[in-house]
Amino acid sequence: MIIKSRVDILSDMVKWGRNNSSSLTDFNTGSVIRSIYNAIASQLAQLYYNVHKIYRSSRILYANGSDLDKLVAGRSIKRKSAVKASAEIQFTGVADTVIPTGTKIGTSDGITFQTVESRFIGEDGGLTVTIQAECTNSGISGNVKAGKIVEIIDSVSGLESVNNVNQSKGGQDYENDELLRSRTINQYAGLSLGIEASYNAWAIESNESVLKAIPQYGHPSVSLNTIIVHVVKDNGGIFTVGELDSIGQYIQTYAPLGLIIDVRNIAFTRISISAQIRIRSGYDLNTVSTYITDNLNIYLDYKERDWGEDIDWSDIYTLINNTEGVDDVSVSQFVPSENIIISDYSIPILDTIIITEW
To answer: What is the average pLDDT value for the chain, to the nearest integer?
Structure first.
């Protein structure tokens, strides 16, 4: 949209007057007609500005603040508020020691949590108790790894140690205009066409435990207008029926009209490996087997694998052969003996490992 200034408008009006009026000849500064033109140009310039302002406030690319909130609300999107992370804290100490609500604990780098309930040590059995806690500040900084919340800030007699056995989750930063704008554009500027990235983004946004997702079109077991969305849980487990339904309902609100969304747990392609190895001097079978297992877990980490990524048997053979403590690997006794083809809608995951000595 071209925005004209008062000077531009006045110049155009004077040019038009000189070209279209034989009776008006004085358009110089101070003349009556120029003064009239100038007043009109000022009003038109203000009108241009107001229209431009309305135009920008009605476009996701330019709108800010409450204007942007109103625009995205029309697309069933809401700005994300800042949220505090929650954690399960294991308290260890003397039996029957009461841990009050509001007891503060934290990480070594200053991220503080406080309990949201009161329980006593031994309530779960033994000399521990697990208590729900919440970060004192909102934001993703509260999402800390397991084993990081180990500092006792509020001293409690009988309390000896604390620890978060699992990662704290749910912390979320306030979504500023640029983040909200970007999320909306990602969902609607092409995402409504149903491309793979759309469904992956929608699934992840619907449930924080979704690691990745992929849509499958035209499956023979469903109607032509049904899209199966395969989802992977971040811990390698499975979603409940209720969780799958909830993910599906969320995706349905963004998917093109007329489509039916069917969300399913991924069918992992489970990989079994068997190898007969010759062990180097100074090593034993248990130790070397542990080394091999660790290397295979890294190589076949489902979190890092892409959909439909085939497994080359020679890669696994080479990995085992190059493991510390392995002198040689029997080819004739090695499984798999050929490449493993992975479906486009599956991901390989390590199932069983059998290592024997040659």
So the answer is: 90
